[in-house]
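Sharing a chain and its predicted structure for anyone who wants a worked example. Both blocks are below, sequence first, tokens second.
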Amino acid sequence: MRTLLAFAAVAALLAGTAAPAGAAPTTSGSADFSVSTSAEPVTPDADGVVHTQLTVANNGVHDLTVKLRSVGVKPLDDGRTDLTDDSDPVWSASVTVAPALELAAHTYRRVPVTIRVPAALLPDIYLLGFVAEAQPVEPGAAVRIYHRIGALVSLQLAGARQRRLETTFEPNGFITIGSSFDGSFDVHNVGDAAAMARTQVQLGSEATLQTGDGMQLIPSQTYRHVTFSYRVRGFFLFARPQAQVLYGNGTPALQTVTADGLPLLVIPWFTLILLGLVAVALTAYLVWLRRRRAAARTERDAARHRPGRHSAKPAWAR
């Protein structure tokens, strides 16, 4: 799909350069539309059929024709996906969706999608891709713009299967000067099936940090890079962070995998400023005390050498 989009951009550029001088290409009729799908994974019924929908909205001021088709999906790291321009050999023949629809300006339509699960598929979370392509609203314009939006449907086939995650903590320095500590770790799916995982970080007895919004999908042979930040609320923090990943394996019990980071000491700036003020005050007090003692010693020495009255000799000594 990236290749086709790049080709379309080059074709549009060439068409623009071929236009007569002083005649700007017409692009005011470009499409403004959106496509949304279910946020949660869908599951088949007892007959192995999934009923879901695509919601297509025309947000522009022109009537719009949108073509729909099923395509393949290539999972990438960090939750990203790459939609291919070809149909999925496993799913496309099992997907039924309207090939096109007409939308008036500022309207939307829910398009039914029926998916029949192919036989002999193993339990997993499968990603099905859809492409919605808005046709040019001004077919006779010098530049014709084809807008494409990709959409994903997550389909879950329940059942136990090997789902195995591994976690590695990014090395961190021992001393951090500042009010917060930033860290990160990677969660690798080295199993045979996709996993829904929730991550968190334990900072000793100080706090437990939630590092994501609920469960996140990690397809097989991909990873997620998880970052976190903790703001120190006391005078300092001394802890050894531990990454904790909880995920399902198709059984009622959750699996847990952990990874320990290096010990760390976080010293906020206000602690350093407070220690600096204490050091300045203590130094000033010691200097004042030393000068006071020196002045007292000098006064005693002066008193010993100061001339005074001599007492009269006793009668027997005269």
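Comments welcome. The radius of gyration is 37 Å.
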